[in-house]
């Protein structure tokens, strides 16, 4: 297991020197953030980013993410050009020592929350989701936390209209088409594609979600058995779906060598589809974080891990979900779990 930490580049208030001081931190998960989606990343930008990380004593082996252009998801005629560009990005990242790319195939919105600053009893701020609040919104006039500036109203309206002809089957077929176009490059340079599950794992505003369950994941792996076709095992995303058996899935996909990357976060259920994020400890929420770590270890998991979505605590006014302090606490907790479980498994 390699412990990593999400870092948003030089503009991130969480510095590389802070990240380096977290025990057992091997590297950062980052990206080139200012190149338009669908374009090729300049080699010099990739090299400069890698140099920043290495000079701080941290590896840059995981990229999150190389975004997938909406034309690919929609299956438009322009998709082949964008897939070629994506494959070239894979090659260039492989040249720079990257070994894993986390990406998603969620239409329009790659995550949704209804509150980015919910105040908890102990004074922390957390991300929260209330399904009825989201369902009551008018898709033609959306105002969503974290997404208000992602698209102009006309752009959002156009995208929603374009997806009216795209159902689950069509979106899945477009995912397979995309992966068939980029996996040869992955095999050339030894990079794993690690798809992130839907967050949350159900359809939104009539937009299909196709990676929400064990059945969905099995379908993808059956369609493309290439070993570089992998999963980002996100406990919070999959865990929001109450029917998902996370312990079984963790061991199953780890044993199959299909989890190059794991996002480990805790949520607390507050309704059938309502939840709030919380501290990483098993006792803090509804997910068995200890059991998930044990299942990963028993399955032979040896990939990358990052503490996912921390609270804002101790007065920190950081990027929602991505402050320093609580994610550092989460990393320390996860380090302890992995060490204890690995030691126990060796001795027994």
Q: What report would you give on this structure?
A:
There is one protein chain. The chain has 348 residues and is an alpha/beta fold. The protein has one domain: Divalent-metal-dependent TIM barrel enzymes (TIM Barrel), CATH 3.20.20. The protein contains 12 helices and 12 strands.
Series of H and E elements? EHEHEHHEEEHHHEHEHHEEEHEH
Number of strands: 12
**Structural category:** alpha/beta
Instruction: Calculate the mean pLDDT score and round it.
Output: 94
Question: Major sheet: order of its strands?
Answer: 1-2-3-4-7-8-9-12
Any key phrases for this structure?
single chain, 348 residues, alpha/beta, TIM Barrel, eight-stranded parallel barrel, four-stranded antiparallel sheet, 12 strands, 39% helix, globular
Map the helices and strands.
Layout: E1 2-6, H1 16-20, E2 25-30, H2 43-55, E3 59-64, H3 70-74, H4 79-95, E4 100-103, E5 115-119, E6 125-129, H5 131-135, H6 153-162, H7 168-189, E7 192-195, H8 214-223, E8 229-234, H9 235-239, H10 246-255, E9 261-264, E10 266-269, E11 275-278, H11 289-298, E12 304-307, H12 325-347
Parallel strand pairs: 1-2, 1-12, 2-3, 3-4, 4-7, 7-8, 8-9, 9-12
Antiparallel strand pairs: 5-6, 6-11, 10-11
Helix pairs in contact: 4-7, 10-11, 11-12
């Amino acid at each position: 297991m390699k412990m990593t930490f999400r870092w948003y580049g030089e503009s991130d208030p969480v510095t590389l020197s802070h990240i380096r001081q977290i025990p057992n931190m091997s590297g950062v998960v980052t990206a080139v953030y200012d190149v338009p989606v669908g374009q090729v990343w300049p080699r010099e930008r990739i090299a400069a980013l890698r140099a920043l990380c290495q000079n701080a004593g941290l590896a840059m082996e995981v990229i999150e993410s190389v975004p997938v252009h909406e034309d690919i998801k929609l299956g438009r005629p322009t998709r082949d050009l964008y897939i070629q560009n994506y494959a070239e990005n894979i090659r260039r990242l492989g040249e720079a020592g990257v070994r894993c790319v986390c990406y998603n195939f969620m239409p329009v919105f790659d995550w949704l929350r209804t509150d980015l600053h919910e105040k908890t009893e102990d004074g922390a701020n957390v991300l929260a989701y209330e399904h009825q609040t989201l369902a009551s919104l008018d898709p033609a006039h959306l105002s969503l936390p974290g997404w208000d500036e992602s698209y102009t109203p006309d752009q959002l309206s156009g995208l929603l209209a374009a997806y009216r002809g795209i159902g689950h089957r069509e979106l899945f077929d477009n995912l397979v088409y995309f992966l068939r176009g980029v996996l040869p490059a992955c095999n050339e340079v030894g990079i794993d594609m690690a798809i992130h599950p839907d967050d949350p794992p159900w359809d939104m505003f009539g937009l299909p979600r196709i990676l929400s369950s064990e059945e969905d994941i099995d379908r993808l792996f059956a369609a493309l058995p290439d070993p570089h076709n992998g999963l980002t095992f996100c406990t919070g995303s999959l865990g929001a779906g109450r029917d998902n058996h996370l312990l079984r899935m963790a061991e199953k996909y780890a044993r199959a060598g299909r989890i190059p990357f794991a996002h480990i976060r805790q949520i607390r259920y507050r309704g059938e589809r309502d939840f709030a994020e919380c501290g990483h400890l098993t006792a803090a929420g509804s997910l068995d974080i200890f059991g998930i770590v044990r299942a990963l270890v028993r399955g032979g998991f040896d990939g990358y891990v990052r503490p996912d979505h921390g609270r804002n605590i101790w007065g920190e006014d950081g990027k929602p979900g991505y402050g320093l302090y609580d994610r550092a606490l989460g990393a320390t907790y996860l380090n302890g779990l992995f060490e204890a479980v690995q030691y126990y498994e060796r001795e027994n």
